[in-house]
Every structure is written in structure tokens, then in C-alpha cells.
Amino acid sequence: MSSGPEHLNAQLTRIKELSGLSVRALARQAGLSSSSLSRYLTGQLVPPWEAVVALCRVVARDPRPLRAVWVEASKAGAAPSPRRNDLPADLADFTGRETDAALVEELLRTAGAVAIDGMAGVGKTSLAVHVAHRLAPSFPDGGLYLDLHGFTPGQEPLEPSAALGRLLGALGVAHPPAETVERAALWRSELSRRRALVVLDNAVDAEHVRPLLPGAGKSAVLLTSRNRLVSLDGVPPVSLEALPPADAASLFGRAAGVDLTEEEAVAQVLRQCGGLPLALRMAGARLRHRPGWTAAVLAERLRDNAGRFDSVFGMSLQQLDAVQRRMFRLLGVLPGADFDAPVAGALADMTPDRVNAVLEELVDAHLVQEPSPGRYRLHDLIRRYAADIAADEEPQADAAVRRVLSHYLEQATAYDRTLPLPQRKETVPGDPAKAMAWFDTEYANLVACFDTAARLGADEVVAELPQAMRVWFLRHRGTDDQVRLLEAAAAAAERLGRSRQRASLLVDLGFARAAAGRLAEALAAYELAGQSGSDDDELAGALALRTGFVRRDLGDLEAAQAQFRLARTLFEKTGHRSGQSQALAFDGWVTLHLGRRGEAAELARASLALAEGPARMTGLVTLGVALAPDDPAESLQALHEALRLTEVQHNKAWCHNYLGVALRVMGSLDEALEHHRRAFELLEPLAEAQLEIDFLPTYAETCRAAGRHDEALALHERTIELARRLGRPRDEERAREAYQAIVGAVPAGDHGTDSRFRS
């Protein structure tokens, strides 16, 4: 007998069959996100009961008989999404705030959102993180944390589009849409199927966080800001004041680690600290590190300083030796949000054993935070204080920052070389998973270092860092950051007089623009690369290959074929087997779409003779589709082998889509439709505009062949919409012609080619 989830999955699949709709169309009618519906249908997620009711309503079916099946499935559970927990560590000495914490918890339960506001240092982040840890059992899908840097010295606030990109990345969405509105919609959709708690720290104002708020569902959001976010509808504010005297005394005593009996002296210290937790912890740490001192001595020393914050920070600084003080002030000018010990060592030009000891002292003095083991950061107030001291006392601050830039560039280059790349002849030994994890962790800091290098005029770093992130960007391609970095890097290479490097960067820039669907801009970058005057045949081969991709996507197949054949000739001159294989494979692909199946199959076989591993994918797919009418067995063998070899999700989607095309040619229409659907399920979270506009016509043609005319029309409508948005008039025209052909109940014209391979 089927288990709970499997039984429910079978029932939901039956509902979908009864509807006769695609996943996207069924989701639209049921008021669900198509990505969530895909997960319900594949058993990855047990839907909420409301979603089951909505699906039954679409097919006019009574949902009540499914209630017992749904309950059984809910108890058994589905394949769970990995629990995400980005929250910083809770403070061990968190003190007071019982009333505030209770109010925040209650509002999260009832309203699903809270905005904590208050002055700098009052403990907004500490309270938010403390509450988030206390409520963790209520949010089984985990906790997400993002610092929006609304008030971080030397750093611009994180724009909503970039913030959404990072939040979606935390949920496994590798390629979010380009537009902020679309990212926000996808973010709400992804959260709607989860029960997660999101902490958005340091917002500038209401507009800064409005696009980041969750929609319907059981997830919740906790905001912090120095400003009251009163214009956010449905987000009640909780304003923090300084700690009352009793709580302030308790926190100070815990930080000091002693029993404080000198009431008047303690009261003086508390007044100097203004009831701010940050200042209280630092003052207590100062007393703890001076066993011979009394509270009265501390109060006297604090009175000798003019400013309240400077007095507390200055007292903490006085407990450090010269090396520790230098490290502290240099941390004020460090690019990025957080750092590890090697970065701090590069900053201060310090040996690893010494830097760890120094960081421990700074953590003990509450001048540096350690939100997770081995990762450090400074509170914004303390960072400002450290930066001010560095401006006065550290004439070599720029040199220290440049050491950090060099450190990040060296690390990125070393990790990048361990990662496979189609045009790379060989990689160096290393753990690719570790390398990708490093890039994931350090990505925001790498971007901050790039911007700092641009500000300092460090063109060497500006030109080289994006190339050291090439493989990471290949998996997160077409992002705003990638395009921006590559544009600046190409300009830096030009200033350095490096024509070859500039051309290479322009080739990468063109690829990034093409991945975002900006084909005319991609061609412009490639044309600039071709004008570089470089006589590097290997680079020229890569340029011809990438130009061929864009010509192919624009529908100019003859021009694409000419570029692929030029690339093959250039790669043959350099002995670059992988490049030759790619050029042959894509030559075969366009030859297939020009209607010459036999020639396409021969080109694909020649490609496969040179390729190894995942690089065989394009040749196998080309061969499989070319052989579909005449040799179904070999066709399916090649296509399934291609699918087995793929490691990247967008490649898996490509293989499934063209398995659907081949199966349509063979007459296996139901099976073909399943592969098309699977392709779009994989494509859904990637927001790959170029692949979507490639897949839609092939899926529509299979729907038309299967007599599913409404689905085919909906797919053509989507193609028209997407082509118009991307500025692709030829794709729009073809989709309109296919649409009218269905409406007129006459076969669509094949434009002189075999219509079974139309794409």
C-alpha cells in the first residue's frame, strides 16, 4: 500500500491530469505559485490543506475525501527542504528586555512582522537575534539573516534588488529574475511554502525593506532600523529605549564578572554608558580585565574623557597593547561586512598564530563580535570609531587595505583554478565543493573589495578579480553584479594597456549580458573584444564560439554556423580539444535546425570523439535529436546519457526539453510532455530568460501535436510576452505565426525546415 506522501502525490497528479492544464496554468487557476505546485506534484513538499482545496476546486472535485490522505501525508512528511539558519549567535549575557521580547514574540505570532527601532547601540540587533533563537522551534524551515548595511560606515546600503538576490540565493534560487518586482514576487512565492523567520537588520527606511516583506503564508519577518518604519502597513513598530537602571546594572555586573557593591560608583558608570548595552558590555569588560580596579576607579577614568561613547570605547582600547590597538583601528577601514583570521592577518601584516590571539583579545574587550565560529565583525558604532582613529593615527591605512585586496584576489584565483570550466585545459588539485563554499561565504566581501579597489585606483585588482570569479559567476550568471564588475574590469584593463585581458573580459561580459537575455548588448561587447588587436587564437576561438551562441539565439543560424566553424579552425591551430569539441557540437546543433539531420549527426559524432565527461552533453543531445526519426533506440540512449552527465540544473532542464522533442518525433506524446514539464520545473527557480524563450516553442509544438491546443496557445502567449520584454522581434513574430496557425486550425508553416525540429 502506498505511503501517505506517495498516495497524496498520486491523487494530486490525477487532479492535474483531469484539469488538462500545464503546471503553470493549473497553478494560476488555483492561486498557487508554479514552483510550489511543482514540488507538490513531485512529492518534494506536502501542500497545505488550503492548496489541496484550491486544486480540487479547479476540477470541480469535492476535497473532503482527500482529507484523511492529506493528514496521513502531513504526519509522514515529504522530502524536506534543508533547514537554513543564518542567524548570528545569541548573546550569552543577554539581559532584560523581557517586556519588549514578549511584545515582539506576540506580534510575530499575530501580525507576522515586527519593526524594532531605536538609537545606535541600544540593542536592536541583539533583541531581534535573541527572539529569533527563542522562536526557532516555531519556524521549522529555519532562520534567515541579512544585514542591509543601512548605517555601516564606508559601505553603501544594500539595494533591494541585491538584497532579494541574496535572500533568494539562501533559499536555493541560483538565478533570480533581473527585475526587482519579479524578484520580490518570487521571494514571496518561495516564502509562502515555508515557515521561516527572516531577520532584516539595519534598514534605512520603509522603502528600503518594502520589497523584502513576505506575502501570504506562515513565514515572519523581523526588521531593525534606527528610524521608525511607521509607513509599513501591517508591520507594527517596537521602539527600544535605553535599559532601565536595574537591567543596566545587571548587564554591567555580568560583563564585569564581579559582585558590584559600590552603588554610587556603579551608578556613575551607568550614567556614563547611558543605559546602552554596547557601552555597558565594553565598560564591564574593561573592569574585568583590571582585577586591581574598583568601580570607583572605572567611573573616575570615564569622567576624564569628554564624550560618552568615546569614553567607553577609549577605555576598552586602553586595555590593549600597541599591536592589538593597531589591529583595531585598521579593522575600521577593512572592506566588507565580516572577515576571518587570514583576512585580519593580511590587513595587519601579521602571522597566523599572532592574529588569532589578537582577535581573541578584541572579542574579550567587546570591540569585535564573533557571530559564528571563526567569522568576525564590528558593530557599526565601533567601526566608525575605529575608522576615525585610523584616519588620525594610521598613515599606512591604504597600504593595509591593498594587502587585503591582494589576499582576496590570491584566494579567489587559487579556488577558481580548482573548479572545472569548459574552455579550461586543466584544473589544479583541490576540492571544488570547498571552493564554491568559499565563494558563497565571501561573495559580498569580494564585491566590497572590488568597489574599494576601484575607489583606490587599484586597477590590477579591478581587472583580475572578476576573472578569478569566472566559474562562480558561470553558476550565477547574468547578475547585475557580474555585468557591473566586468564592465569596470574591462575599462581597468584598457587603462593598464592589457589588450588581451580586456578582450577576455569583454568576452565574459558579452556572455553575462546574453545570459540575461540582452543579446544586442552582448554582441556589442563581442565586437569590442574583436577590435582589441589580440593575436591570441585561443581567445579568438572563444570569442567566435560566444558570438555564435548569440547569433543562434537571435535565429540567424547561418551566421551562427559560420562563427562555430571559425571557432573550430582557431581551436585546431592551438590544439585545444575541448574548444574543438564545443565548436563541432554547436555546429551540429545549428545544422540540425537548418534541416540537415545527417550532417548534424556526423558533426555530433566528431564532437563526441574529442569530448570527455559533461563536455559531451551538447554533442549527445544533438545526436539524439538528429537520430530520433530513424533510430529511436540510439537516440534515447544518447539523450539519457547526456542527462546522466549533467551536473548543473539549467543543463538538466535543457536535456529534458530536448528529450521531449525527440519523443514527440517518435510519437510518444505523453512521455514527451512529461519531459517538457520537468524541464520547466527545473527552470522555474532559475529565471533563465534565454532558456525559457528557447523551450517555450518546443513545448508548445508538442502540446499542439498532442491536441492540447489551449496549452499550446498559452505557451505561445508567454513567448510573445517574453520576446517583447527582451527586445526579440524575430522570436515574437514566430510565436505570433504559430499562435495564428493554431487558431486557424491549419498546420504552422515550417519555414523551409522539418517542422518536427522547430525550436
Automatic annotation (TrEMBL):
Family annotation (InterPro entries): Cro/C1-type_HTH (IPR001387), Lambda_DNA-bd_dom_sf (IPR010982), P-loop_NTPase (IPR027417), TPR-like_helical_dom_sf (IPR011990), TPR_rpt (IPR019734), WH-like_DNA-bd_sf (IPR036388)
Pfam families: HTH_31
GO molecular function annotation: ATP binding
Residue span(s) of domain HTH cro/C1-type: 11-66
UniProt KW keywords: ATP-binding, Nucleotide-binding
Superkingdom per UniProt: Bacteria
UniProt xrefs under PANTHER family: HTH-TYPE TRANSCRIPTIONAL REGULATOR RV0890C-RELATED, REGULATOR-RELATED
Protein name per the record: ATP-binding protein
Classification lineage: Bacteria, Bacillati, Actinomycetota, Actinomycetes, Streptosporangiales
